[in-house]
Amino acid sequence: MRDTPLSNCERLFLLQAIQEKKRLDGRQTYDYRNIKILFGTDYGCCIVELGKTRVLCQVSCELVPPKDSRPTEGILYFNLELSPMASPAFESNRQSELLVMLNRQLERCLRNSKCIDTESLCVISGEKVWQIRVDVHVLNHDGNLMDAASIAAISALSHFRRPDVAIQGREVTVFSPEERDPIPLSIYHMPICVSFAFFLQGSYLLVDPCEREERVKDGLLVIAMNKHREICSIQSSGGIMLLKDQVKPVEMLLLVEGEHENHSSERIKPFPVLLCFSSFVLMQRKEGGKFGFAESLPIERITALKRDEAPVEMADVKDTAEEIINRTESSTEVYPPGLKTRERSAASPVLVATGTAQVGEGIVNSWGLEEDEDDEVIIEDKGGGTYNHNCICK
Amino acid sequence: MAITELSALLKGMAGLELLSEQGYRLDGRKAGELRKLQARMSVFAQADGSAYLEQGNTKVLAVVYGPHETRGSRAKSLHDRAVINCQFSMATFSTAERKRRPHGDRKSSEMSLHLKQTFEAAVLTQLYPRSQIDIYVKILQADGSNYSACVNAATLALVDAGIPLRDYVCACTAGFVEDTALADLCHVEESGGGTALALALLPCSGNIALVQMDSRLHQDHLDKLMEAAAKACQDLSKVLDGVVRRHLEEVSDLTKH
């Protein structure tokens, strides 16, 4: 399905707003949207929300024979998918330009920068190595997929634990998570991509463009950096004409951005956050709590992944039920006998005003009583349930 | 810091020094020297424009068809400018190991995309609405700086086809070893684990059409690297200009008699 084209007046409005240094959601030029990182109950499952852009990443591993040219190294495989669920502009055909660009940038950012120690993934040199597969799915497209995907991928990789192996001669035993604790991957550094969008022939630049801003951009510059002020990858696309002095201030910003992301309390704090969440998930598994994808859908709070069962008083259920029923029955005899006979005999309409007639007088409003009854009945039915009444998705 | 350790490791392991103490690289060049560039234009009679370029051992063939009517779906044509269609492929015999998939894999698609974007910025597409310009690039021998050689060859092919350009598009790679920037990397230097920055430049205005870098580099070194790459591109533009003028002389000589 083709996406609705952007109207000219909307385009002009956006460009003019950018010229006046205003953005649609009121951010400043160099402001990021709120980033939320949520981990699922499986190892290696991570959901990142960058404003309204939502990206899900899952890491899995498998024992495979290694590549011929690199017999002692493990294999890292990245796969990003754009499903039509994310945006009507995405079609199921594979080779769209955006898909190629995102995939390659993800590969470059994470594989070429050597952030993961692939030598440690080798089990038997030349025969068996671990293949780590990173699958990123875009759930909702509201601009800046690259940043969200890179954050999701690196968070999921940090969260992931691979099974422990024991080698005896040529025999390889893979232990399940119950037998031996799984081992985390050895990650040297965490590269994160930051996107800069250029407008009006490179004269204006915005950080973290939203979907509307992306439509009117001239070009994009993606820079991946890590905490140690090292640039892991630079990629410009869109055929914009940059000047050398434009690239320089961009990376000064990046430095600020990187520090911001690491130290500011509203933004992500990769290391402490990941440690906290991964240990939490470990606890959950041990206690035999429910796990799986359905449980991992965020309910806006990480503590909501496991709920305590709420105790309900069940002792005098029968008595309260009878009481309620009696009360309801009495309410049907609320109107005085006089009124009743009048209604029964005179079922003819009474003219109130021209064009308006009334049949009968109606009974006394007993809504207040009925509401209380309904609530009490529901609580008793779901005595041991673990549902909550909040919205699951926002 | 990490790069010096890596090159020290390389030195220990394979005895290969990317930059010796006297300042010579593996093939005897100095740090800022480009490889020998040879090019010929109008190598094919059938195509509107064609060029063959050799940059050291990297050999590239570029062919341009156009501007012509949009082939395929009408939906692809733009009402106010020309569409540039690029296809990048490597011959199966171009690399040390035989390449399984010459085109259609991710890396080739990405290269095609980058080439397309680079030339969309450089070609005056407004002059040819509702038409299409095809650029086909094939690498016959890959010895580093693949993308740069493709861009240079495609520029020459476009000039040969007579398509108006804003300026020559010159591309070059630059690397960084032990605080020195190297220009025009060969395959060994690129895959040696050091940094490689590819830059496509329009020399007269200094506008950057594309910048691409993989592998880690400390932020402080970026300036030096960009400078080295920009300078290499400027030098390259002079060579390309010389090639075009020589070709024109030859052609005008032929037509005179």
From TrEMBL, chain A:
Gene3D superfamilies: GHMP Kinase, N-terminal domain (3.30.230.70). Coiled coil: none annotated. Signal peptide: none annotated. Its main location: cytoplasm. It comes from the Eukaryota. One of its GO terms (molecular function) is mRNA 3'-UTR AU-rich region binding. One of its GO terms (biological process) is U1 snRNA 3'-end processing. GO terms for cellular component: cytoplasmic exosome (RNase complex); nuclear exosome (RNase complex); nucleolus. The keyword rRNA processing applies. Pfam families: RNase_PH, RNase_PH_C. Residues 32-163, 189-248 form the Exoribonuclease phosphorolytic domain. InterPro entries: ExoRNase_PH_dom1, ExoRNase_PH_dom2, ExoRNase_PH_dom2_sf, Exosome_comp_Rrp42_subfam, PNPase/RNase_PH_dom_sf, Ribosomal_Su5_D2-typ_SF, Rrp45. It is found in: Cytoplasm; Nucleus, Nucleolus. Keywords: Cytoplasm, Exosome, Nucleus, RNA-binding, rRNA processing. Belongs to the RNase PH family. This is Exosome complex component RRP45. It comes from Danionella cerebrum.
TrEMBL record, chain B:
Gene3D superfamilies: GHMP Kinase, N-terminal domain (3.30.230.70). InterPro entries: ExoRNase_PH_dom1 (IPR001247), ExoRNase_PH_dom2 (IPR015847), ExoRNase_PH_dom2_sf (IPR036345), PNPase/RNase_PH_dom_sf (IPR027408), Ribosomal_Su5_D2-typ_SF (IPR020568), RNase_PH (IPR050080). The keyword Nucleus applies. Keywords: Acetylation, Cytoplasm, Exosome, Nucleus, RNA-binding, rRNA processing. GO terms for biological process: nuclear mRNA surveillance; poly(A)-dependent snoRNA 3'-end processing; rRNA catabolic process; rRNA processing; U4 snRNA 3'-end processing. GO terms for molecular function: RNA binding. This is Exosome complex component RRP41. It comes from Danionella cerebrum.
